[in-house]
Design a protein that fits this description.
This protein is mostly helical and about 180 residues long. Helices cover about 75% and strands about 0% of the residues. The protein is elongated, with a radius of gyration of 22 Å. The two termini are about 35 Å apart.
């Protein structure tokens, strides 16, 4: 945008902000899909959603007094509720369950009779080397992350539906 154009001009807001909100809903949806693929996609999804929320923060001043401010606030809350409340709780609970349902005899044997080059990396590799453990860990974490993913997709879908209708989110402070 050139410096001579007023970025609070209603004509600009009416063309830029709907596109921005649509883009952000898309980024948020893509980020949750990427979380269920490989480790590189998890990192890509995390970076994308973080960039998306930063963009929402930067652009919300332009949206003040419009329906789009409501949508940017909804997206920001989705990020913070999901990323700093729900996701850490799910990760900790899933990790605890994994510790109780996996076979740790390999680690116990390794600790009781340590090899000369015993490191934490060797222990982790030994733990994950058991195919059953890897499968159990994946299933437990998937089971714990699935409700989070459904919640995230629902918030993005609901927000986008309201955006496409030109309506605000009725209760932007709601978790649902």
């Amino acid at each position: 945008m050139s410096p001579n154009i007023d970025d609070t001009d209603p004509a600009i807001i009416n063309t830029e902000l709907p596109k921005l909100c649509t883009l952000l809903y898309g980024i948020f949806l893509a980020s949750i899909v990427l979380q269920f693929l490989n480790i590189y996609c998890i990192v890509l999804g995390s970076v994308a959603v973080t960039a998306g929320v930063i963009l929402a923060y930067l652009e919300r001043r332009k949206a003040t007094g419009t329906v789009y401010a409501n949508h940017l606030h909804w997206l920001i809350r989705t990020f913070w509720i999901g990323g700093s409340i729900y996701l850490p709780i799910v990760t900790v609970l899933g990790s605890i369950v994994v510790l109780f349902v996996t076979d740790s005899t390999g680690i116990q044997q390794e600790v009781a009779n340590p090899a000369p080059d015993l490191t934490s990396q060797v222990l982790v590799q030994h733990f994950v080397a058991y195919k059953d453990n890897a499968s159990i860990m994946q299933h437990v974490m998937f089971a714990f992350l699935l409700p989070f993913a459904i919640w995230w997709v629902w918030r993005c879908g609901y927000g986008y539906k309201r955006l496409s209708e030109g309506k605000p989110i009725p209760n932007v402070m709601s978790w649902f």
